[in-house]
Amino acid sequence: RYPRAKIYKAPPPGEFGAPNELLGEADIEIADGAFGHGGERNVFAMRFVTRTTFTKVTADSRGRQQREVEFEAKPGEQWVVKEDKHARVNDSFEIETHDKSLVCQVTAGNLAQNFNAATAQLGGDIPRLKYLEAFLITTEIPSKRILFTERRLEAGFQKWNTNNGIVLRAERPLGSGDGSSDEGRIRTEHVPQAFSHWTLADNENGVDYEDSDGRARRGRLLVCDIQGCYAATRRELVLNDPVIHSQSGEIEANMFGLTDHGSRGIMLFMKSHVCNPLCAVLGLPPNT
Do residues 145 and 138 touch, judged by C-beta distance below 8 A? Predict the structure, then answer.
């Protein structure tokens, strides 16, 4: 058990090096052994000991004060914490590593919201994308740890593409129909691939962000390594652990973390990407 763990809000999209905003403190329990191992981090089960709610005071359109919930967790909910598996140089280095992961996930989530708005205009029943909300946790007792945390994904984990250009097929068609006919029909498994393509095309119109030195930049980004689960009842793909390749990586190496491979990562994705019907109706440039 870790008493009085500090919970910090993720930085805004694209804002590296922003001060970590403390939401509050809570008692948490973390499993002794990791149940998952990624390329950069080990994953542990975690839970909040008691119901935890953090609020802030805001004003409505008439200037009246009201409380807005910024964070809420219940004891029965399953959470995970992710800890850097590499040797730590110092606390600042580890915070920077998690900061890049937090900014990456928040930026991908913001792009997913914009993508949902674009697909909603098409009509039909195209599934929405949602990235899990992530936070930073630090502990002091019984040991000092710096952790990335988010809710645990629901069952049915799948990966649709990777960070090195590999496109994966779902184990079964996620949309209605078995895909044996009506090739022009938009199916659920088209959505993750079209989203990755769309992030690159959308950024050609300009996505502003700041590098770790606070300098304003505008560059092309591509979100990939699309993974998570499909909540069929909500028609929603719930995602986590994105990779963002940024062309600014040539100037600011690994801007979005060690998996940001810059123009090479973008090239590898586009080399293997085959446009699908959703790419076409979104008006994305054909990938030839």
Answer: yes
The DSSP secondary-structure symbol of 249 reads G
Mapped onto helix, strand or coil, the DSSP state of residue 112 is helix
pLDDT digits (tens, 9 = 90+) for 181-226: 456 788 889 999 999 999 998 755 455 666 667 777 677 889 999 9
Q: Cα Rg for the chain, rounded, in angstroms?
A: 20
Contact 66, 60 (CB under 8 A): yes
Q: 286: which 2 tokens?
A: 């054909």
Sign of CA dihedral 164, 166, 170, 176: positive
Answer for the pair 206, 219: CB distance below 8 angstroms, yes or no. Answer: no
Residue of 244, 251, 240, 249 whose CA lies nearest to 269 = 244
Residue partners of 5: CB distance under 8 A and separation at least 6:
25, 26, 27, 28, 137, 138, 139
Distance CA 122, CA 135 (A): 33
Residue 240 to residue 62: CA distance in whole angstroms: 37
Q: How far apart are CA 235 and CA 151, in angstroms?
A: 19
**How many residues are there in the chain?**
288
- Which of 5, 4, 9, 3 lies closest to 22, judged by CA? 9
> Which of left, alpha, beta for 165 (phi over 0: left; psi -120 to 50: alpha)?
left
Average pLDDT value for residue range 236-249: 88
The CB density around residue 277, as the number of other CB atoms within 10 Å, is 15
